[in-house]
Amino acid sequence: PKRVVLITGCSSGIGRETALLAARAGFTTIATARDPGRLAGEPFEARRMDVTDEESIAGCLAGVIADHGRLDAVVNNAGVANTFTSVETAGMAPFRAGFEVNLFGVVAVTRAALPLLRATGGRVVTVGSTRGLIGQPFNEAYSAAKFAVEGFLESLAPMAAATGVRVVLVEPGPVLGTAFGANAGVTRESLLAEAGPYTEALTDYLDQVARGGHPGAQTGRDVAEVLLRALTDEAPPFRIMTSDWGTEYARTKLADPSGAAVLAMTRSLLLPHTLDLHRRAVLRTVALVDAIGDEQWKQPTPCAEWTLAELVE
Ligand code: NAD
């Protein structure tokens, strides 16, 4: 029988691209969205699922089992950018709303799917983010939720493996051309209007982002290809970075327990410069981290005094 994969958040972006690739690769592909009418006419089966609504999740999965008799994989893709401002000025509501989709959505869908996946020896594939490994300014709510996804899945993975279910996390860096930014429903003006003490830093951050040219940027299709591998490879690892850039970026965190290397990189996002400065700061940080031997990391924080000026010389 054909393997059945269910993907969340398929109205746009990475989810839609993944559904197209999975259908072409021969999966019975259940593309879910809050408004599945938008998916009519595509080569996959569209069903309604709101990942923040447990009844909607249960109803959708029951329908899949009734019609197809099995579930071999879920792809937790639905996500929201929700806020590019600060929790201090924006308040708790957008923070909680982001967690509802980005963390609790993943937890609820995974929880509901696990019994079905045990029956097939299936897998849970989840779209994380490099921002779930390294925090970023003006991404507090988003990063915090994606960090939490890491903790949830890293804890679940050995338990799931003990019952024959594989857990895989796919970690994209920046992705261009999806509806992610637009879906956040904010404008430069609306963000700056409530930035309070962070107005200057946010201006520089938004300027950098608007100038574009991030060295690690990928398309939704690039990420979808990695997700397809996570679905089809015999034994994918727990964590898959989608680019060499992402691998280098995340490595600094693991290599420097003091956190100084990460701050040196991410502070470069708050300067009135182009992303090229951020790129240079990251590359230099990676080189410095590489140059420090394993033994030295056991000494007190060797890179605590690195300054941004040194990094981007
Ligand atoms: P996108 O906005 O195009 O896709 C996200 C989809 O999730 C949208 O179709 C949206 O309608 C859907 N969604 C939102 N709330 C939902 C809910 N309650 N129930 C069901 N669906 C819901 O953006 P994308 O870039 O394709 O994002 C997909 C995933 O990739 C997200 O998990 C995102 O965090 C992650 N990601 C994105 C980037 C990026 O830079 N765009 C980088 C790393 C990771």
TrEMBL record:
GO terms for molecular function: metal ion binding; oxidoreductase activity. Keywords: Oxidoreductase. One of its GO terms (cellular component) is cytosol. Belongs to the short-chain dehydrogenases/reductases (SDR) family. This is TIGR03086 family protein. It comes from Actinoplanes philippinensis.
